[in-house]
């Protein structure tokens, strides 16, 4: 220990250490480590540290007022904090209002509001293909409900592991041509649990995350405690620049999505996988908004890259060299295109077993109820065989995007099934949504911060197989009316302002931003749509592939 030049022999300690030994908090530890501590002596007046030490020393215990609950001091104002946080949301117009929308299975894609007599057409559901009302799915759930009851009975470790759960995981593994799969209560939980568990286990792991990744991935990355870098959306140059900073031997994970839900842009999957291999990283791909929607069997965008090979390969069999085969970890949901609820991961058997054994988000959560698992199995099996729903959804999306472009309504460019209509501020976005519902009986939810950046607020439209030409014409007319009434910016207005989030911006820049293949406008290419149409027509004995609109819906629309 360094000694003070004025009092080098003072109690065998430095001046500061001597003073610290008098502290009621750390003093006992210091004194306990002294083999032959001498009684503390006053510091010499000449000591240059004496004054500083006296000022820094805590008050003696006798001088400190003891903390008691017998005071007039007020408790923390908890309610005041809650109200202040909410006031901030109201002030910046990002407060969320939940509409009372009750989707009607027999009248898909319609719903009633709080007033059961008020029928509206839903244009923003994530039940992309209408599987929640598919008779095959509903019947499977009813049978499981009658056979096994409503609840799972516990976690997977305690009475909650049934044949239906195992079958569901087998179906998911086969769908993605991976060794194993694991089901969670939601994909938010799947992403959080997997990323936090995996990356906290990898020594010195570094995570590279796309700037537009979902909140569930961000949460999992945060919970992992690993070092992270955020790369610009779909920017391969930026990603490589970040990867190159670390030795190849450093554990690394690149996290990104296939279809980004609020913009509709598509991740550059093969290019990102190639960079990951080059720099010794593994890949984590979120296919939440793509499963059921892309590929000949509904495995997602990674499958769609190798459409022909996937179409003819035996179910569940690995396709070496395919884009799907290059992805290490795939996560997906059962709650969107599959129409049920729940999330999952698909990967190697050892990785899945490690997550099963260590992830608190899996271990300590009640498993999915048997009817849910049965419905999910039925939905996956149905969409693995049927192309009808995907064909109709994609053609309806193309038609709507074309109609909106002709009307000058600003759509954020993308090659997927999402139709984001740019508004540009939170208050106007909510006003547009409210007006569509109140005046036109059309429900389209407004999307504000933090789901999208401030200044990029929008309406998010998702056409379905059940929306026909008449419904689409009503929607476009209603949007045109709302844009005129509220004085909202059209595509030409954004062009004059230099563009925003792809609207009115340079096409070359937009192509880099939106992903997919350069020069190819849609993920579902024309030849693939034609194949899907011909396959379905043959499978159904020549029946036209058109929306099936219930008579009750047609009656309401005509009125």
Report the C-alpha radius of gyration, rounded.
Answer: 30 Å
Indicate the mean pLDDT.
90
Total helices: the number is 23
Give the low-confidence spans: none
* Main sheet overview: 7 strands, mixed
Q: How does the helix and strand content classify structurally? A: alpha/beta
Outline, from the CA principal axes? globular
Question: Would you report the number of β strands?
Answer: 14
Strands in their spatial order, largest beta sheet:
4-10-9-8-7-5-6
> How much strand?
5-15%
Q: In percent, how helical is the residue content?
A: 40-55%
How far do the termini sit from each other?
91 Å
If you had to describe this structure to a student in words, what would you say it looks like?
This protein is an alpha/beta fold and 559 residues long. The protein is built from 23 helices and 14 strands. The strands form 3 sheets. It has a 7-stranded mixed sheet, sandwiched between helices. A 4-stranded mixed sheet has the order 1-2-3-12. The protein has a 3-stranded antiparallel sheet with strand order 11-14-13. Strand 1 (102-103) and strand 2 form a beta hairpin. Helix 7 (187-201) packs parallel to helix 8, helix 9 packs parallel to helix 10 (269-278) and helix 18 (426-440) packs across helix 19. The chain is globular. The model has no long low-confidence stretch (mean pLDDT 90).
